[in-house]
Every structure is written in C-alpha cells, then in structure tokens.
Amino acid sequence: MPRWMFLGALVYAPWAYGSTRDWTIAGLDILIAVIVTLWVMGCLLRREWPSVPPVLGIAASALAVQGWFHVGNAKFDYDPAGLEFTSLSPLLPWAPGTLHQSLSLQSMVHISAMLAALCFACEMAQRAVWRKRLLWTMAVTGVSLVLLGLVQRFANAPAIFWGPEEMGPSFFATYRYHSNAGAFLNLVWPIVAGFTLVGFLRGTPGWKRCLWTAALVLCLAATAIIASRAAAAMTLLLLILWGGWVFREIARSQWKGVTVATAAVATLVMILLIGSLAALAGLDVSVKRWNKFDREITEENPRLLTAQVCLDMIPEAGVWGFGPGTFQTAFPYFTHRFGDKIEGRWIFAHEDYLQTLIEWGYAGGAGWAVLVLGGLLNSVARAFRHRDRLPIEVRVTHFSILTGLAGVLLHALVDFPLQIASIQLYVVVLLGILWANRHWLREPKQHSRHHRSKTTPVQDVALAP
Asked: How far is the CA of 271 from the CAs of 119, 144, 275, 455, in angstroms?
C-alpha cells in the first residue's frame, strides 16, 4: 500500500499547482507522513530495520536533529506584519536556535517529510519492478504536464483552465513561475529519453517506440517555449551531454546494429520535429526574454547584488546557520549597503546553495552535500567499476538519472528549483534510486551453474520494457 501511495504522491506533487501553495505543500506532507507511517509499521511487523544505507540514514537523521533542535531551542520569533522580533527563552541559550521559530517549524515539517521520502524511495528502488514504476510514473506525469502546457499555449489561455487566478504571460502547465516549470521538465525529459532509447535498443513493439519518441519531442519542444533562459540553457547542455554519450557508446561498438550515420539522421529528424512544434506553439515570449539578456548582465542586476548580500550573510550564519526557512526573515537586515537597488520581498535567494548555507550553516551544508554528492559519486564509482559488464539498459538508466539531476543542480546556481516541493520530491526519488545502486548497478544475475548453459541472464534493470 505505501509503495502505490508513493506513486500517487509523484502524480499529485506537480499537478497540485507544482506544490507551490501552502495548502498543496501541506497535502503532500500529510500524504508522505501516512506513507512513511505505513512503511515503518510494515517494518515493525516483519521485525526488520528499514533497508537504508548507513551513510544515508546517518546524514538524514543528523539534518533532522539539527533542524528540530533549531526549532526547539529558538532564540526569537518574528512578526512579519509588525517587522518585530520577539525574544524567546531557549533551553540552552549558548546553543544554536532559529531566529524565526514559526517559520522554521513550518519548514522542518516539510523537510522531515522529504528526508523520509528519500529513505523510503531508496528502499523502494532496491526492487527492479518498483524502480521501473518510479521512473515510469515520473516520466508519464511529466509528459501529462507538457500536454497541458502545450494546450494552454495553443488556446492562448491566460491561466490554468480551472480557477480564476491570472498567472501572467510566462506560466506553463500548473507552474506559475516559468523557471520552476523548466527545471521540472529538465528533471523529467532525460528519463523519457531513457525509455525511448531502451525501446529502440531492445526492439520493443513499434507503437511503444512511437509513443516514447513523441513524448520526448513534446518535452523538448516545451523546454524551448518556456520563457526560462536558465532552463533553456540547461536543456541545451543536457542535449550536448546526451549526444556525446550516445555517439561515444556507438563508437565503442556497444550498440549492435546502430551506426553513427543512423544516429545522426535520427538526431536531425528530432531537431526538425522539436523546432517545428516549438514554432507552432509560439516562441515570442522566449525570444523577448532572450533579447533583454545583454541589458540585464550588469553590476546593478538585483540577483547579483543579492548574491553579494548572501556572501556577507554566510559568515554571520556560522556553523549552524540562522535556522531552516529563515532566509526571507534575515535577508532584509543585510541589504543596507545597497539601498534601494534591491527592492521587494525576497523569499528565496535565487541561488539555492548560498541560501542553504545561510539557513543551515557549514554543518548543515555538509550534511546536505553528503545526501546529494554521496548518492551521485557512489553510483558513478560503482558504474565505472563495472562499466564493461553492465547491461545497456542499466547504463541508459544510470545516465538518464545523472543528467536529470545535473540539470536541476546546475539550475540551482542561478534560481531556486530546490525550494519547490514538487521538484524536491522528484530529486529525492532520483537520489534514492542512486543510493540503492548496489542493487542494480551490477552484472546481470545468473541462474545456478547447473542451468547456466541452458538459460539466459536474469537482468535487474529499471528501463527494460
């Protein structure tokens, strides 16, 4: 039951306005809490510990302890309306504590849900059938949002088809902010590309290959018409990585029956299809934003000034940080030297790594680095160690996950995709799959030695149809 419910959460998160509203985030957190509770109950009934790598479990637990200690040992609360801090009486005045207790409490409820989802996804991904279902659900959900976004463009819709809210000219699908939509699609389309590629390499039925190819074309066309320049740049970079990897595999004669000429023709056809669909859907908003690019790259750009402020804040945040979710509270008190050059309310720093160090300090930043880089580097090391014995489906699966994560992690250098709940959920699922790499980045299982000559290898893969 919890595994099927988790697949439902993967559908809910992006469709519920991208989980960007308070009530949709609360709904996602409640759903994950129910899932994790059922999971823990199942482990208790089986008298088993959750099957989570020790490093992952320790890092996630350490982050949870740090965050909740900040909340319990809060130094201040804050009144946004009156712009006033209220002093509290922390249990340990000398120990770290958040400067905005109510905001950190809200943030830690959600972060705890995401940490639990990461551990659950890791255990879930240890079985091939559920690993495939996770990736398939993410891919199909992403394609469904692309279809909604394209229909909106063709219909010149001023907002999502339901609800009275006006969302401006650059929204896409259920995302109000175009950059969030672009980051989400850059997480999804590499998985779609993996299913497409495996379909051709495995010789699946023609209708399946056509469906996955059409889905990939739609996803890439959508990233072209979304008005996010950062997302478009990430898409281009990921396409270059995919192209280089595919032609490298062909040159190494890893794909029997596929030549460089065949791959080049297929690539050209794909580019023509993507360009044609993007032109039909409308590129005017994207073109207008790119035309402003040279005028915005100046020393007075608010985002560059904000990054300078963040660099000033990090030493003040110190080892433990100001507290989870407190960037928007602390930031205005460090902007005085720039006067009115930084205007408005800044909820996010538009640079996720700087914001993480401000809220979590050096210790928390190290914990988050272990969660992210640990899964990435460990899986890459294992894949390199077994590179000559891994089935092609496994290599495609691994590369599609790596490129999907690379897109959003690079995007986080110039925006705030890692602050969006739906993107966070998809990122932790992909990280969970990577943390479970010892269960699938390996040689195919063989039958017993007595039957080996009469049977074929049993492959434990994710993208196998």
From this structure: 39, 21, 6, 42
Rounded CA gap, 426 and 375, in Å? 14
CA distance 441 to 437: 5
Question: What element of type H or E holds 266?
Answer: helix 260-281
Q: What one-letter code names the amino acid at 31?
A: L
Instruction: Look at the alpha carbons of 63, 68, 73, 79 in this order and tell me if their dihedral is positive or negative.
Output: positive
pLDDT in tens, 129-158: 999 999 999 999 999 999 998 888 888 877
**CA-CA distance, 87 to 76, in Å (whole number)?**
5
Residue 172 near residue 178, CB atoms below 8 Å: yes
In three-state form (DSSP H/G/I as H, E/B as E, the rest C), the secondary structure along 53-113 is CHHHHHHHHHHHHHHHHHHHCCCEEEECCCCEEEECCCCCCCCCCCCCHHHHHHHHHHHHH
In this prediction, residue 428 carries a pLDDT of 96
| pLDDT for res 41 | 93
What is the Cα Rg of the chain in Å? 23
CA–CA separation, 369 vs 385, rounded Å?
A: 23
Q: 87: which strand partners?
A: 76
Question: What does the domain layout of the chain look like in residue ranges?
Answer: 2-296+347-442
Residue pair 465/204 in contact (Cβ under 8 Å)? The answer is yes
Cα distance between residue 387 and residue 138, in whole Å: 26
- Give 388's DSSP letter: T
- What residues of the chain score a pLDDT lower than 50? 447-460, 465
Rounded Cα distance, 422 and 180, in Å? 10
